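Human: I hope this is not a bother. Would you mind checking the protein record under this note? Thank you for your patience.
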Amino acid sequence: MRKIVGITRKTITGFNILWPVFLWGISAFSASAHGGADLTSQTAWSHWNLTPAMVITSLLVLIVYWRGMARRRQVHNPPSVWRHVSFFAGIAVVFLALQSPIDPIAERLFSLHQVQHILLRMLGPMLIILSWPEGVLIAGLPALVRRRVLAPMVSCGALRSVFRFLSHAPIAFIVFLASLYFWQIPIIHNAAVLNGTLHYVMHITMLAAGLLFFYLMFDRRDPPAGIPYPVRILMLIGTAVSNTLIGSITTLKTVVVYTAYDIDGRLFGLAPLADESIGGYIMWMPASMMCLIAILLVLHAGGKQEERHYAKSTAWTASNSAALEYPQTAEELRIKVKTVNRSMGLTLAMVSASMFILALSTVIAIHVLF
C-alpha cells in the first residue's frame, strides 16, 4: 500500500486526470443519443438523460471514495470535511452536466450549451481537484485492483512521459484554451452538435483539459516542484482574457453562425441571434468570474507558502545570507523585495497592456468579421 501511494504521488497528475476521464469516457461513449430532437418547451426541464453506464460508473466512483473515507478516518491528519464536500460536489456537477435536462436542452440552445461547457471544463474540475481525492480513492480500491491495475498504470513509462509533457505550464495553458476555441469554430461546433460521437469527444476533451489545468493551478507543491504562484496567476489572467475575447465577439456579432441549433428549432422561443449573444455573454462573464475565484484561491495558497517560508526564520543565524533570506530590518527587506517588486510591476504593466490590446482587437475583429 505504501509503495503504491509513493508511486502515485510521483505521478499524481496522471491519476487525478485519468480516472474520471477513463470512467466517464467509457460511460459517455456507450451512451445513446441525447434525444434533444424530441424536446418541447413544455417538457424540456423534466427530460433526464439517464444512461445505465454513466449512472453505474458514477456510483462506483462514489462507493470507492466512501470506502476510502471510512478507511482513512483513523489515519493521522485525515482529509477535512470540506475536501469531501468538494469532491462530492464536483462529481455532482459533472453528472448533472451530462445526465440532467441540461444535456438534451444544450442540443437545442447554444446558450445552455455554454453553461454545460463551464460545468464540464471549469467548475467540475475545480471542485474535484480542490478535494485532492487520490489518497482516499486509493484507500477505497480493493487490494487486487491496486496491485493489478493501479500500480502498473502509474508505473507505466509512456503514461508518465505523456503527463510530464502535458504538465508543462505552456502546454497545459494551450491545451486548456484549445479545448474552448477549437470547439467554438462554427463548422466544428455545428458538426459536434449534430454528431453524437463527436459531441462526446468534445465533452471528454473539455473535462480532461480542465482537470489538467486546475491540477497545475491548485498544485500543493511549492516551487520549484510546482509552478511558481505568479505564473499560475498569469495563466489564469490569460484564461480570463481569452474568455473575454471569444465571449465578446460572440456576444456582439450581428450574424447567426451556429446554425445546427435551428434544425430542430431553438427552445423557449429564443431567437437565434439572441441565443448566441447570451451564450457569448456566458463565455465572457461567468467563465471569467470562475477565473477570478481561481486567482483568489491561488493567492491564498501562495500566502500559505509564504507563511511556511517565514516559519523557517526561527533557524535564522547572524550571517549575510541569512539576513537576505529572512530580512529583519527595513533595508534588508528592500534588498529582498527589490527584484520581486520589479517583476510584479512589469507583470502588472503587461496585464494592463494586454487588456488594452484585447479591447482594441475585439472591436476591430467585430467590425472586420461581422
Notes: The two ends are 60 Å apart (CA to CA).
